[in-house]
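User: What would this chain look like folded?
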Amino acid sequence: MTGITRMASATGRRPQGPALTRRMVLGAGLAAVALPRAGLAAERRLTAGPVIAQILPEGDGTTAMLGLNGTTPGPDLRLRQGEVLDVMFENRTGAASALHWHGIRIDNAMDGVPGLTQPVVEDGEDFRYRFAAPDAGTFWYHSHNRSWEQVERGLYGALIVEEPDPPAVDHDITVLIDDWRLEETGALIEGFGNRHDFAHAGRLGNYARAIASVTHVRRGDRVRLRLINAATARVFPLEISGVTGRIVALDGMPLAAPREIGEIVLAPAQRLDVIADVTGTVRFDFPTRQGPYELGRIAAEGDNPEPIGGVVGPLPAARVAPPAAPTQRLTLRMEGGAMGGRHAGDDIWAFNGISGMAEAPFARFARGETAEIVLINDTAFPHGIHLHGHHFFELDAGGAPGDLRDTTLVAPGETRAILCGFDNPGKWLLHCHMLGHQAAGMKTWVEVA
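Assistant: Here's the prediction, encoded as C-alpha cells.
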C-alpha cells in the first residue's frame, strides 16, 4: 500500500509493524458492518461460516471473512444479569473452532478452550454452551482455536449482560474496535502464523475502524458506549469527542467512582463503558503526532427535547469479594521475542522459561485462596495478560488494590502486581491476548480445586 504514515502511540512510542493509512482511517464509517441484536435470554444458534463483509468504505471492495449468523462481527448477544445463555454453536467454517466467552466468570466446562476445557468443535459439528451470567457488564465472545487467525477473520461478537435495573440512557451502544491487514481490493492479506509477526508486536493491520450498533443520535441524548478492543494485537489509544460524561466500568466491572473520560488506552480484549451526554457528532479518534485519525463517528441529528441530564453516577457494585490477604505470592516473567533475551523455552515466547502449555499448571489453588502474582515484562513489546474465569485487582505502586480487570496491559520493562481471589473451580488459561504471542508460547494455566 502507498502513503503509509507511521503513527505514535499514546505513550509517545511508535507502534511496531504496519501502520494505518490516512486514506483508509479517515474513510472509515460506522454503518457498513451490521451488529444485529438478539432478544433477552432466548434460546439461540450461532452458526459460524464464510461471509462477505464491507470492511472498507461503501464503494470500495468487499472482504471474504468468517462470521456468525451471516455477519461479522457476530450478533450482539444480550441478556439480564443472572439469566442463562443457551447457545448452540454450529461450526461450518471449514476448520476446527470453539467459542470463548471472554470475561464471564462461568463454569469451567463452558469456557471454550479446546484441549483444556472441551474438545475442539470440528467443521460440521455442533457444541452447546449453556451458562448463567453472574455479572452485569460488557463482555465478548470469540474463537479460541487458531484464534490469531479466526478472530482476525471475524469470528467474534459482543456479549452484553444488562443490570436488573440499568441506568437510564437513550441509547445503549456497542462499539467494536478492530484492525485488519488488507489489500487495496479489500482482500485479507494472508500469511497468518507469520513468525515475524509472532516475534514482534503481532499481526497489526493497515486499516482500522470503530463499528457501532447505532449510527445516529440527537444532541442531548444520554448514551452508554460499550467499547471493546477486538483486535488480535493492536493497542488502541482512543479519544472520544462530541460527548461529556464519565467512564463507569472497565472489563465489565463497575468503577466505585466514575472517572473523567480523557484519553483512553485499550489493549486487545479490554473493554470500557462510558455514560455521557451527546453535544455533537460523536467521534472516535486514534491520536498520533500527525493529528487525530478518525476511526468512526456517530452522527448527531436534531435535539432531544427532554434530555435525561444530571450527574452520571456509579453502576451497581460488582459481586466480587473484597481482596483478602494473599496465601501465595508468585512471579510470572514474560520472556523472548525479537530483541529479547534468551530463555529456556522451545518457542519464540515463554513464561518463566516455559513455552506453551506444560503438563503441570503454573499454580494450583484451593478454592477461595487469594494469590498475588507479580507480572514482569522482560521483553521489548507490550503484553495484554488475560486470566480466564476470574477478575483480579491491579495493585498500585504501594500495593493497594485498584481496578478490577480480566486483562492487564504490561508495557516493555514494566512490572505489575495483581491480586486474585481464585473462587471458580477448574482449569483456567492464563495468556497474552496479543494472540500471535499466545500461539508462539506465551500461555500457561492454573488449576482451582
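Confidence is low (pLDDT under 50) at residues 1-18, 22-40. If you want, I can go into more detail on any region.
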